[in-house]
Write a structure and sequence with these properties.
Largest sheet: none
Number of domains: 1
Radius of gyration: 18 Å
Helix content: 25-40%
Distance between the termini: 53 Å
Strand content: under 5%
């Protein structure tokens, strides 16, 4: 996939050209975009910029078994109920 339009020149001599189009793709089909996995969802990072996001949260966009945690399932339902009660109590 990278070979199809995201290299500075064809073959092994080419460098990957990072940008919004490549960031928006899901190279490994795991449901997370390349940008989400690399902590740059908009593809705004440029050579010389500081690394975006949290370096410890970066996952491999070419490996379907390596992806960010699914936030929808990361909080147990019993914990979620406790959180809702706490938030509701703040607004009474």
């Amino acid at each position: 996939m990278i070979e199809a339009g995201f290299l500075s020149e064809a073959g092994y001599e080419g460098d990957v050209v990072w940008g919004s189009k490549l960031a928006a793709l899901d190279a490994d089909g795991d449901g997370f975009t390349n940008g989400e996995e690399l902590q740059d969802p908009e593809g705004a990072w440029r050579l010389g910029d500081p690394q975006p996001g949290d370096p410890d949260a970066v996952t491999h966009p070419g490996d379907p078994d390596s992806h960010p945690p699914d936030l929808a399932t990361s909080v147990e339902s019993t914990s979620w109920g406790a959180i809702k009660l706490l938030v509701n109590s703040l607004f009474r």
